[in-house]
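I am still getting used to backbone structure tokens and would like to learn alongside you. Please make up or recall a protein chain and show it to me in full. Would you write everything just below, so we can both look at the same thing?
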Amino acid sequence: MEVPQCNLPKKKKKSLLKIVMIFFISLFITCAPAILLGNEVNEDDYNLLETVVSEQEDDEYSSPAIWSVIPFVVLLLMIATGPLFYARFWHNYFPHVASGLGAVTMVYYLFFLNEYHYPLHSAAEYFSFISLLTALFVASGGILIKVNKAGTPF
């Protein structure tokens, strides 16, 4: 049985290798705290957690205003209509528009609500999601990485 070969140009092989390396680095960054800290919880940590939760229940929670979804709605409308009605602008400036609308949301959370937890939590979830997509892309692509060395367990 013949092993399929990767017949990609050299530039594409390098970019593919970069994607695989970014995946493994992101996987390490995502999993390293859990591995290093372990899953042990002692009674003092549990009591501290109860105290923090009870203090948070006493504080008032300020949820974002309903109009704060406007940047998201604008982005959805632009994604739906951009390629049809203003294709040249959309293809040239999509990253700028998306980044600008995301920046508007971040400024609102960080400076008007003084809330840092939700943006950081969303960034961590986004990072995990992109890592998952990268893994699925690599696994489903049937990518063969050929090395001229013998495989050993160490």
Remarks:
- Helices lie at 10-37, 43-58, 70-85, 87-112, 117-140.
- The two ends are 27 Å apart (CA to CA).
- The CA atoms of residues 46 and 52 lie 10 Å apart.
